Amino acid sequence: MNSILDTFFGLQGRTALVTGGAAGMGYGIARALALAGARLVIADRDAQAAEIAVAKLREAGCEARAYIIDLSQESEIAPMFDAARRYFGTVDILVNNAGSYPKYDFLQITAEQWNAVHQLNLRSLFVCMQQAVKLMLEAGRGGRIINISSVASVHPATIANAHYSAAKAGVNALTRGAALEFAGKGITVNAILPGPIASDGPRDPDAPPVIGPAANPQRWITGRMGTIDEVAAAVLFLAGAGGAYTTGQALAVDGGFLLS
After folding, report:
1. Which residues span the domain enclosing 119?
2. Which residue numbers delimit the Ketoreductase domain (predicted)?
3. What is the SS3 assignment for 92?
4. Which of 27, 67, 87, 164 is an active site residue?
């Protein structure tokens, strides 16, 4: 008999595609899905990191493939889903994790910089959702789409980040619209809004200092930053059978930041 954990969270026989899945939060999410039984496609622009991530998952007994892609190049997205179908037959779970948040002064950001941020953080996510839904409808067994948004989508979090906040607010609206459209097909669409999350990688010494509410420890009402595993756990809930009746939601994993 399956355990209650297998019933609610087991992903055996399912295929997940995680964008930006080679390192950091993306790898933490991919690892959680793989250990729950899913086959993994790790999509990332860093070929070396992607291959290392896949090797780690295979060492843990998981089935995984790497796909190297620059998601800012929209023409590369459909071929990625074609490859996923060749690898594993379909895509049952899409986690749109890839993104970037370069700091630009509100009065200095150029149209080109604005467009680049929105291309990666919003438009490429939309195209990935389109391609995933097509495969899910073709397979006829529903699916899960989980978009990694940000608390910055609903509350300013850091200075010089308004362009990113606007893109993530678009992710939230897109999540709700798609959830409404495909709920009758058994496809759930949800967003996760991470708050301040401790990174497991080195910080760029040339990056500007992070200034704003999210960088203020007094706003971390639980007394600490979150962990990558805590975000991955939320993804695991939404990806499994336990999340089948949850759609169109924006789940903040923020330690209460939005309350403060």
Report:
1. 10-259
2. 14-223
3. coil
4. 164
